[in-house]
Each structure stands twice: as C-alpha cells, then as structure tokens.
Give the backbone structure.
Amino acid sequence: MIKVSIVGGSGYGGGELLRILTNHPYVEINKITSKNYIGKQISFIHPNLRNKINKVFCSLEELEKCDLLFIALPNLESMKYIEKFSSLANYIIDLGADFRLKNLELFEKYYQTKHLSPDLINKFLYTIPEINRQEIKKYKYFSCPGCEATSIILALYPLVQEKIINEKTKIIADVKIGSSAAGSKPSLSTHHPERNSVIRTYHPINHRHEAEIKEFLNLNVEITATAVEIVRGILSTTHIFFDGNQNLKEKDIWQIYFKYYQNEPFIRIINQKEGLYRLPEPKILWGTNYCDIGFKINEETKRLVILSAIDNLVKGTAGQAVQIMNILFNIEEKTGLDFIGLHPV
Amino acid sequence: MIKVSIVGGSGYGGGELLRILTNHPYVEINKITSKNYIGKQISFIHPNLRNKINKVFCSLEELEKCDLLFIALPNLESMKYIEKFSSLANYIIDLGADFRLKNLELFEKYYQTKHLSPDLINKFLYTIPEINRQEIKKYKYFSCPGCEATSIILALYPLVQEKIINEKTKIIADVKIGSSAAGSKPSLSTHHPERNSVIRTYHPINHRHEAEIKEFLNLNVEITATAVEIVRGILSTTHIFFDGNQNLKEKDIWQIYFKYYQNEPFIRIINQKEGLYRLPEPKILWGTNYCDIGFKINEETKRLVILSAIDNLVKGTAGQAVQIMNILFNIEEKTGLDFIGLHPV
Amino acid sequence: MIKVSIVGGSGYGGGELLRILTNHPYVEINKITSKNYIGKQISFIHPNLRNKINKVFCSLEELEKCDLLFIALPNLESMKYIEKFSSLANYIIDLGADFRLKNLELFEKYYQTKHLSPDLINKFLYTIPEINRQEIKKYKYFSCPGCEATSIILALYPLVQEKIINEKTKIIADVKIGSSAAGSKPSLSTHHPERNSVIRTYHPINHRHEAEIKEFLNLNVEITATAVEIVRGILSTTHIFFDGNQNLKEKDIWQIYFKYYQNEPFIRIINQKEGLYRLPEPKILWGTNYCDIGFKINEETKRLVILSAIDNLVKGTAGQAVQIMNILFNIEEKTGLDFIGLHPV
Amino acid sequence: MIKVSIVGGSGYGGGELLRILTNHPYVEINKITSKNYIGKQISFIHPNLRNKINKVFCSLEELEKCDLLFIALPNLESMKYIEKFSSLANYIIDLGADFRLKNLELFEKYYQTKHLSPDLINKFLYTIPEINRQEIKKYKYFSCPGCEATSIILALYPLVQEKIINEKTKIIADVKIGSSAAGSKPSLSTHHPERNSVIRTYHPINHRHEAEIKEFLNLNVEITATAVEIVRGILSTTHIFFDGNQNLKEKDIWQIYFKYYQNEPFIRIINQKEGLYRLPEPKILWGTNYCDIGFKINEETKRLVILSAIDNLVKGTAGQAVQIMNILFNIEEKTGLDFIGLHPV
C-alpha cells in the first residue's frame, strides 16, 4: 500500500484525487489538508464521498510522513511550502503550475511574479505519460501539465515527431472549457446567473499554457480560451496551416496518430464517417481519464483541424496525476482510472 | 413625464426596472443608487443597457427629489432608510419584503428580526393589480409581493373568491425556481459548478412567502421551494385536495379562472389538449410580465393541480412594480411591458 | 461467469446495462439486440463504450441460449415476446413495465391496452431489493419498478412499516425528472430548442407509476411529474399530511429511516444542518446506484416532506437490475455498482 | 401599412418574424403558410404569440397578393416556388440560402445540387444593411445572409476596407453556435439527452457560409463550427495573422471599427478593460438585433482575434430581414427591433 496525503483537498482537483484514490486498491489515504475547512468532514465539501471516506480536513501543520504527497493547491502556492513538502515525502506530484516551467523568464512573463524556489525546478519532471513515460522512474518530483496544455500537447505531439509542424508553424488552439476549470472559489464571473449559457472568450490572447507548450514541444501555439455552458470538459480545436509543400491526406494523419497512440490505454482516435459522435466530444468523458483525438484535413487549403477532448479534472488534472503514480510505483497504469464514462449525460 | 429614481440599481430587480423604464415613453430616470458601484457606468453591471442608458451609479446621499422612488434593496434594508425616502418622493414602490406584512408577529417569526419602522407599515398597500387594482389610487406607498407569492396568489385568488378553498384547505405549493431569485451576490450556493444542473430543495418548509399569502388571502399554504437549472422563471405547482362534498369538473375550473381573469392583460389561461406547451411553461415568459395559469383536476380523488408560471424578475418583481406605477399615474397598464417573449429559447 | 444477453440494447436502459456489465467481473455478455441498428457497432450508439466492447447489435432471431436475459424494450413490447424469451434463458430481468402489475384491471386502466401474457404475470417478482431481497431466490423472473416509483417507494416504505401512513393518507409526490427518462427516440418534445431550460409539468395527474405503488405498498400516492433541465436524475418531493394524533418529531423520522436502511449499501440518509448538499441532490448521483433520502417535518402543521434522489437510468433502471442479478447469483451486491459519483458536475 | 405574408411560418425563422412583426406599427400580417400545420393556430407552434396573433397557418395555395413576401423556408425550397412568389408580391425577402450566391459553380459545390432558377439570381441583392444599405432601394428581391456569415462579415468588413486583410490572408473563423440554428425539425442530433452539454464540432471544414463570404468580401475564410449548450446565439472567434509589415496597435483597430460602425444602430463595439462582459457575449443579445464586436491584438505575433456575437434568429435571420424591410419602405430602421436584451439570463 502506498501511503499518500493530499495538500489542498477541498478544491476540485483535490476532490477528484479523493474520488479516484478512494477506490484505488493500492493506496491508503493519510492526511487531507485544507485552509478553510479544518475539522470538517471531507464529504461536507465533496458530497459524492459520503459513506466512502470518513475523515476530516486538517491543517498543513498536521501533515505526517508519507510515501507520496499530491499537491493540489492554487497556482503559486506550492512553491512557498515546497521545502516542507520535500521533508515529508519521498515523492511529490504537483497538480499546480509552480514547477512546470524551467525557463524563469518565461515563468515571470506569464505568471507576473518571481519564483520562490528556483533551485528546485529542475528536480521536477513535467509529465505527460504518453510522451515521457520512460522518464518517470528517473525522477521523484513531478509537475502535471495544465488542463488546456494537456489536451493541446497530446493533439500536437505526433505531428511534431513526424515533422509536420515545427516552431515556425502558425498554430491556433481555440479552447472551449467548462466552469470547473476556474476552481472552487465563488466570484462574480462564476455566479450562476452570470455564468449560465455563456459563450465567453475570457482569454483571447496570452494564455499561460502557451508557455509550457513552448517549453515542452518547442511550438508557438496561440491559445484563445472560451468558457461555455458545462461544468467539466475541454474541447481544444487546434487549427494548423501546414507547409504548402506537404501533400498530406486524411489517411496520412490517421497513420501518424495510430503510430504514436495505438497502444495507449487512455487515448482514443475518433474519426467516424457517420453518427452523432463522429469526432471527440467532452461530455462522454466526464469522470474518465481519456483524451479523445480526432481531425479533419482540408487538402485544398492545407489546413488541418485537430480536435482533442478531455475531462479537465481527470486527464487534465487528478487522473493524470494518478496515472503518473501508477507508473512510478509499478502498478498497472489503468488502476483506479477505469471509469467508462456516461451516455447519455 | 414621471421623474423616477431607483434605490439599489445594481441588483437584478433594479436592473430589470432599468431595462423596462429605459423604453418607457412617460418616464424620465433621474438617479440610480448602488452601494458597491458608485461612479461606475450602469452598463458595466447591466451590459444589456449599453448604448441605452448613459449614467453612473450614485450614493444614497446623492438622491434628489423626484416623483416616484423605486426601492430595489435587499430585504430588511428599506426599513432603515424609509424616512429619508419619504422625504424625497411623493410615491414609493418597494420591491423588497420590508413592508409586505401588517402583522408584526408574523414579520418577526419569518424574518427573525424586529421591524424598524412599524409605524409606516399601514401606509403601504400590498399590491397585486389583478386583485386590488381599485385600491391603488388611495395609496402613495406600495409594497410588491414576493415572486413565489405572486405566482401562488394569482393561482389561488379565484378559488378563494368562489369559496372552493379557505383557511382550512390543505394546500401545498411546490415551487421550482431559477437562480436569479437568489440575487446578484455570489456565494458558494450560486457558484456555477455547484449550482449547475441542480434539482435542489433548499426550502422544504417554512418559506417566508407563506406569511404574505396568509395575510392577503387568509390561506394556509405550505411552500416547498426547489432550485432548478434555469436563471429566470418560476413554476408553482399548487396541489389542493378540495372538499369531498364539492363536485368540481374541469370546465368549472375553466369558468372560474375565465370569470376573474378574462380581461386581464397579463394573465393567460393555458390548458391545451395537445401540443408541447399544453400547460404554463416559464421559459417562454422570460422578459415578459405575464402570469400563465393552467390546471388539471382529478375528479376521482378530488385533487386539483394549479400551475402558474412567471418570470420572477418581471411579473415577480420589476414588471409588477411598473404595472403599479402605470395604474397610479393613469398610464395604459401595458406601457413598457409589451415584450412578447421568445420562442424557442 | 454468468452468460447474459440484452434485448433492446440500443436504448438508454440497455446502454446503461452495457456500461455496468462491461466492467462486471462475473458477467460475460453474449448477444445484444436492437431493432434499428442490426450490424452496427455497439459504440456507434453508445460512444462511451468505445474500446470497451467490440460487438455489433443483432436481431431478436439471433439470440442464443444464455443464463440470464435482460429485457430493456420499450413498454408493452416484452409481453409480445415473453414466450420466446423464456425458452432462451432460465432467468429474466425485465426493465420495462409489462409485468409490474398483478392486477389486470389496473394494468388496463393505466396502460390502455389488454395484457398479452396474463398467465405469466404471477411468475414475476416486482423487485426492490431493499424491500424484498429475501424473495429473490424464490423467483426466476423479475420485473424492475419504474424509475419514479423506485424513488417514491424507497422514500415511503419505512413510513408504511411504522404505520405513519396508510392507504387513507393523502400523499402527493411532486417528481422532477431529466430528459433521459423519455427514452432514446427523438420527438418534438425532446427537440433541444424546445426541451432546453424547461420546467414542464407534463403529467399533472394520473401518472402510471401510481398503479405499482398502490399494488406494492397499498398507498394512494398522487404523482405530478415535471421535466426539468437535466439529462439524468430524479428528485421526488413527497408531501404527506400525517394524522393529527401523531406527534412526530424530526428525530423520530431519523430513527425510522435509520432502522430500515442503516445497512443498505445503496441508500444514504441525508439531512445535514448546514452546507450546500444538506438534502438529496440528483446530480451527484449520476452514474451511481444510490438512492439518497432526506426529510423535513413541520411539526406545527403535521406535514412531512420526504426527498428522494436517484439516477433514473441506474437505481431507477439498469443498476437496480444488476443489483437483483448480483443477489440472485450470490455475488456481492455492490459488484459492478461501485461508481462513487462526480463532484462537481 | 405594409401588407406582408410569411411563407414557412412554422419554423424558427418564421416564428421570429411573427414575433417582431406582431408589434411592428406599420405592418399588417396577411397570410402565414406551413406545410405541416395547416389550420392550426399560430400560437400552437409559437406559444409566445398567445393572445397576440389570432390566425391559423394556411397552405401555399392560399397565399394572396401582398406588398411583401418573407420567405422562411428550409434551404433549397424557395427556388422551387420563386416564380409563384414573384407573381404575388412586388417585394421578396428570402431568409434562406437559395439566392445568396451569384456564382453557380460555387453554389453547386457547397449545396450539392443544381440551381432551379438561375435566371433570377441576379435580381436578388445579398444584403447586410450596414454594408450595402445604399443599394437596397435599387432592388426588389433580397437575399439575407446566413447567420454565421452575418457575424463573420460584420467582423471583417472594416478590415477589408482598410486593406488590413485581403484574399491572401489566412483567416479562421471558429464559430460557436446554439441549437436553434439547426431548425425546428427533431432528429437524433437535437434529441435533448444527446444535444445537452455538448461541445460538438459538427463542421470542422467546408462550411457552406464560406462561399457567401468569398463572394461578398472576396476573402478566404475557413469556418469551423461547434455546437454548444445554448438555444440561441453565435459567437464567432475570427483568428487572423496579419501581414508582418503592418504595425497595428489595439487603438488602430478601435479606430477602424469606430470609423465604420459608430453610427450604426445595431452594432456595438465592446472592448472593456475590466468587468465580466469585457467582450461580446451572445446571451445578452437573445431577442435583440445587435451584433456586438470586440477584438484583441497580439502585437508581438501579429495575430488579431475578432469576436462577434449575434442572436442567430434575429440579426442572423428575421431581425435583419425586418431591418431591410424598414429601409426599403422608408421606415425608421430600428422600428420593431428595439428590444434591449435581458440580463441576467
């Protein structure tokens, strides 16, 4: 049994970790911290866990030694406490943004603050298992990608490997996203009468996840993010004008994705000729760790449209973290992550 | 031209007043107060009013003399300032709860506080024009009913008049309601990921509007209120077991509603045999001042189900207030209130 | 391994059976029939099952001998083929309405048709495991209750046992329900622009499930059903005026539910003093087999409000069917039904 | 009074025309045709029109002479009857696609059929009043642009005029759209349980409206259309990489839009620094004839993002048609189109 604790357990990422780990056969949950709910039952905040977990939130001070620490704090918090965390656990998986970027300049540009633990950055592996699964055993600290970045990177990685695109390619990722991505703290922008039924482009340019894509894939992707009426889910529509000299056909694209992802347990290539769900659709992924990827090519205009869908709280956050843990501890990769998804929903 | 000011113009009731009054041919809007947005453009908070109203919110202190003051403050606020308000305007229409109840004991039971201006209560007319239109000219101060109460009172009034029901009748009003009824202030209960897709019975018993129905119609209605996934709208399903000696048929009910409401501009009796919209449906009333009323009778079990639908912000709040103003100032009752409603929506 | 086939696998009940059974460790899925999609991949209709089940729909004629037949046909279909079905399998679990009622007169009144296999009715056990689990081993054929009926019966059963209510008690069940309950066949009433955002009371009186509640609990419950904006989920708000001589307090109600349900794996009693999820809420039950039950009592007026929430496709249909199968075959009751539910969603 | 008839009055475009024209002071509605609802009350299909219009649908044969015929048929229907229609009315405004394209080759490529009345095409003016208002008086027949095209053309026109973009510019319009755009006929793709909560890219490439943009503005815009959870509304996010030699700043873009649209009654330029509604948002436009336009520029990467929002049934269909009628008949352009929009909603 792996003894894990969760720092920041009252947020949505933390709650999702708890949901997954509660049913994980090789995990023993030790402590769950929260700043605002110390002493409250976990199920007071995460009512889906009623009868499933009988614990209360504790303070950071009450954390004990454990095998693995999941950090699910708001961005720019974990770098404040990282020394303490490393003294408590051998392994750390950070779901937040603090240790994603190696380049401090890029970090400061996108996060508008100095990094508080620059020395530790290189100890972290920025991890998407489908891409750098082999590196995991070499590290003890892991930084999980942002949810939008996860969906975009998985969509683009095979094209980079096959040299269809590179740093000069103009790439636009038009991301549609649900309200849970904004976190568990109420504000006017998430007040139901204001947030309901929106199609609200809240990040037309300069999205932070551009930085991690730049570092990880050396691509210049411009992200435009639009909030839509859904709680969970991301659909990234990535538009690429590929080089005029390339003569790509739809079947070439098929083969490329097949080559890289055919054995991946959490990636499905979706490209049906008919039916309602011809292309990736986030709603059938709620609660699952899948990333569904589809595409269409306009051969005439040399435009490629890649669609990638995930549940932002699972493959985009907590599920990916558990996937990393499974690999790290030699557990079958799908353990705890086998929820099939609902239809209809 | 009637010179009006609005106290509490940044809330949803205030915003709806502004939407209606901006296009009202006989109204000149003077001041619009707000506690939190002094100096901000009205359209900053109510973006639908862009290019329509070029004013900023002001403080209570900046209010000037005017003909009519609309008060759209949170409950239990207007009784604090009512002296000041009466010094500023001849006429007052209060959209809040402060002056609805004559009975102080009932007020204290349901609002859990002492009334701060008990002497003024009797100067206010609790007004539903369809019921006491004739009284309006005798008063200068008006208290608008709560939104749930409006829908229930309009559904029950003809049955009281015809002695189908009385204070001994057991009546349950199962109210379904949208999120705008909770006001414009964010909280965890209105945080989109928590509020979305709910069917949440937040008031199973002891709803405050029971008190005003008791006072106005002398009925003992038990309200159970359930929040559903919608921003605007109320459907009140009122269940009545009528006296076993009565031998009511559906056509009798028809005749009763027809008798009281046939000439009412804002009440429609809806009881189709076929079609999708056989009975009242709140969504086609968004933005309108209608109260649609329908019914079904189970002759065998002597049960009557009355359905009444309104837009809580219009007939339930701001629209009813403007309707009262129109009557008070001898303006055609529908003026400013002629929006037809949208379909589909 | 239990060899099961599913008749009517392209509907929503059938799809939900497939989702649950695909991950069930003791079940081998044999045939899956569909009238309209013969030869099509299962995942063409149920896209959540991609990579999980690699089979095509077949015709009724292609059914083979198996241990257990799940019938998920539209109402009034299974009675046409029941002879054939019984020749194929030892055990039958029918999710539809055909064999729920023993009383033919009641059947004809509510379903407006003659029964085609009246001789077989008594071979079926109308089954809610929490109530008649002990009977299951005595039968081979099982009829699953309707989804609204399930939620109402589970809410009322302890009160019947304790003689709080009986056939003379006036009981109103005001049911709020999602769109999946209307089935998988498109119509104008489920056309998105018409169905979206509704609060539509489509069954004010004479709901069919009144009949099975009458038969099973000998109660006269009047159901009013209202469609709301959700795909999955039912909240039944059951209003009871109990006898004036009873002097019930909230803690008495607590004890009654606790007595009957404390050891039930799929029933949770929800009655928090504070927090958002104080009472049952269907959305956190999507995909789960839970029935959450809560209540409030107005001691003054002798009114009791019972709230019961389920996922109509799981505890209301397919999940309950699998629960019956588990009991029948001596499998741990929760097998295949351990999904925790999502939050937020 | 202008005597108008509506062909195809039971669809959503026809219903919206009826809503607008019913309150129009200079219009007398004569006949309203429908293929499927002959003899039915208008309000049977459009329940918002109860008490507002007391007419029944008639057949095409029952049409009479009138001043103006609005044609709101499904695409590829009006070209079948256009001879008949021109014999009945002096003026025709066609809301469908049949007469939008002058280039028959383009028509055949995108609509996959031969045109049945090619001779009449040039009699039609493809009309967006903000762009070719001056031409209206020279024509008798008018073809209204598609809803997506309207939003994109209004976003791009000033940039074409100012030579920021031209036929060589790579332009991607990522369109998010509500369910009413798919029309009033039920299908599996609009079945509520399947359509609810979607982020479904149903047209990744080769959208038909590319053709009319090409003809009208001589631009090569690639449209990707994604259905989202909303009934009404379009947000078009148009991504442009402008020429590296241009040195555009945000204020330049402001000035360009201001130059072309400052006096337009139905266009608002939205670009706030703060607040929730900083950029165009379709939901506050429901029922209105506005097109709200906003933008952001990434000066570093020479990318421009233009956002344009409309109600697809109003400015995208029926509202624009009435706007054309008003200009044609010398009526104040905003007549009948002054609904302000709702907030919150």
In short: Chain A has ten helices and 13 strands. The domain at 2-145+314-328 of chain A is CATH 3.40.50.720 (Rossmann fold). The CA atoms of residues 11 and 185 of chain A lie 8 Å apart.
